[in-house]
Design a protein that fits this description.
Strand 9, helix 6 and strand 10 form a beta-alpha-beta unit. This protein starts with 18 loop residues before the first strand and ends with a strand. About 45% of the residues are buried. Among the domains are: about 50 residues, Alpha-Beta Complex (Oligo-1,6-glucosidase, domain 2), CATH 3.90.400; about 130 residues, no CATH class; about 70 residues, Sandwich (Immunoglobulin-like), CATH 2.60.40. By secondary structure, it is an alpha/beta fold. Helices cover about 25% and strands about 15% of the residues. The strands form 5 sheets. An 8-stranded parallel sheet has the order 11-10-9-5-2-1-13-12. This is Alpha-glucosidase. InterPro entries: GH (IPR017853), GH13_cat_dom (IPR006047), Glyco_hydro_b (IPR013780), O16G_dom_2 (IPR045857), SusG-like_C (IPR056300).
Length: about 550
């Protein structure tokens, strides 16, 4: 007889969680000023509870002049006026906790706003006590200290005329980088994190955290040599004694680097966001604006690598969308002819994988990109800067606009489409950003009424994850030798085997594997019977079956 030994896992709540990202400016306006706010989120907690999510990642709501929509923070321990008050924030944390939903705060500690009191002081003189909170360098040959560039175009160095020195900004010139080599800076940040932990938050999403170990004089930005020392110090000083989720935004992570962040033995973070799949539709070695078609073979290769290479030494974050990325149904799906089918396909494909899934607001109803025709319609600073930079470099206007329509961040930031009333039920005022005109057809109200909707597919996927350990813990095995656009894999756990088959294409495809289906778990075409020994897959079809 074969003896079966069950190894007890130390299960963390975030390993079985599904996280929902809220971009507060665009979620729900409660006071008619056209800007989403904390009261609007409070009023929608029942909706999120019904969806079934177990945590909210809340994009920044701290005090900010809004140069980069809240990612430029002027006071970490106060709330932006247009979002509400600290009392509103405390009520939101309490109401969410009561609904079984933990609040994950977006933490931006690579840089602050130039209106933060530290930077205001730092600018006063070279010998000010806050000067060393930021990164200052003398000119070199009458110009910038070196060739570091900003993510938002141009040099990463800005001359401070009063002192004659340059300060570093890897993003907007109104987002000066903090000097993490200064122990006082680190302690200020840790004290601030403990302020929020004492208020009962469920963790932190750490914006561009891989940049805090930078060595600017050597033009090293990501994954600097002291990065992991800082994260271990942060863990020990702040959240390490709390049962919370911590996820780092790490654009340069490989699986080996991801293990450094998320191996439990190292006591750093719970998990990271890696972005290898996000760059698959841009030209090699160029910027995200330089487009190329997605090859499904590349997508399979990258996702499989991240499913199989972390083992028990790391934990995966699963996502298609966030506030910086275009909508997946428009990007790699078909948001016209096969809108519902492709939206559901991407949902099932992702949620059947190992890791913690993230849903970005509106993804659960299949919200789409909103194409613009002129730069005057664009709000996002990154897109606007790129437009003027490329225009000056001789690019054609129509090509620049095409890139913005494909990759611009406003695509993700149009207001949530709650119903088919004016402004999609987002506001009774004038919305801060245009509402997608397709809100009459694509909205929460219609999704809730239709039991076969994209929303109910997401709800079903969340329930499946909560009740089936195979999704959380099962091994992942790719099925080789399928048509290029077919992504098929097994999940295996405790004697069970599930087969997931996806056709990432507007064309039909043939698939066969020598298995007997014993149960259909979920299908976006509502098939009553599936014979996987020979099946013609419909456009964007996906199913998960027990074999």
């Amino acid at each position: 007889m074969r003896e079966t030994i069950t190894v007890e896992k130390e299960v963390k709540w975030w390993q079985t969680a599904v996280v929902y990202q809220i971009y507060p400016r665009s979620f729900q306006d409660s006071d008619g000023d056209g800007i989403g706010d904390l009261r609007g989120i409070i009023n929608r907690i029942d909706y999120l509870k019904y969806l079934g999510i177990t945590a909210i990642w809340l994009s920044p709501v701290y005090k900010s002049p809004n140069d980069d929509n809240g990612y430029d923070i002027s006071d970490y321990q106060d709330i932006m006026d247009e979002f509400g008050t600290m009392e509103d924030m405390e009520e939101l944390i309490t109401k969410a906790n009561d609904a079984g939903i933990k609040m994950i705060m977006d933490l931006v500690v690579n840089h602050t706003s130039d209106e933060h009191k530290w930077f205001i002081e730092a600018r006063k003189s070279r010998d000010n006590e806050y000067r060393d909170y930021y990164i200052w360098r003398d000119p070199v040959d009458g110009g910038a200290p070196n060739g570091l560039t900003s993510t938002f175009s141009g040099s990463a160095w800005e001359l401070d005329e009063a002192s004659g020195q340059y300060f570093l900004h890897l993003f907007s010139k109104r987002q000066p980088d903090l000097n993490w080599e200064n122990e006082k800076v680190r302690q200020e940040i840790y004290d601030m994190m403990n302020f929020w932990l004492d208020k009962g938050v469920g963790g932190f999403r750490m914006d561009v955290i891989d940049l805090v170990g930078k060595i600017p004089d050597q033009e090293i930005t990501g994954n600097g040599p002291k990065l992991h020392d800082y994260l271990q110090e942060m863990n020990q000083t702040t959240f390490g004694s709390h049962d919370v989720l911590t996820v780092g935004e790490t654009w340069g992570a490989t699986p080996e680097i991801a293990k450094l962040y998320s191996d439990p033995k190292r006591k750093e973070l719970s998990m990271v966001f890696q972005f290898e799949h996000v760059s698959l539709d841009q030209q090699e070695g160029k910027e995200k604006w330089d487009l190329k078609p997605l090859r499904v073979a590349d997508l399979k290769r990258v996702l499989v690598k991240w499913q199989t290479s972390l083992g028990d030494e790391g934990w995966n974050s699963l996502f298609w969308n966030n506030h910086d990325l275009p909508r997946i149904v428009s990007r790699w799906g078909n948001d016209q002819q096969f809108h519902d089918q492709s939206a559901k396909m991407f949902a099932v494909l992702l949620h059947m994988m190992k890791g913690t899934p993230y849903i970005y607001q509106g993804e659960e109803i299949g919200m789409t990109n909103y194409p613009v025709t002129t730069i005057d319609e664009v709000e996002d600073i990154e897109s606007v800067n790129m437009y003027h930079d490329r225009l000056a470099n001789g690019y054609a206007v129509e090509d620049i606009i095409a890139s913005i329509n494909a990759k611009g961040r406003d695509n993700a930031r149009t207001p949530i489409q709650w119903d088919d009333s004016d402004n999609a039920g987002f506001t009774i005022g004038t919305p801060w950003l245009h509402v997608n005109p397709n809100y009459k057809q694509i909205n929460v109200k219609h999704n809730l009424e239709n039991k076969d909707s994209i929303f109910h597919t997401y709800r079903r996927l969340i329930q499946l994850r909560q009740h089936n350990p195979i999704i959380v813990w099962g091994d992942f095995e790719l099925i080789e030798h399928t048509p290029e656009d077919v992504f098929a894999y097994y999940r295996k756990y405790d004697g069970q085997r599930w087969l997931i088959v996806a056709n990432i294409s507007s064309q039909k495809n043939e698939f066969s594997v020598d298995e007997e289906v014993t149960e259909i778990i979920i299908s976006n075409y509502n098939r009553q019977e599936i014979v996987v020994k020979s099946v013609t897959l419909k456009p964007y079809e996906i199913f998960a079956v027990r074999v």
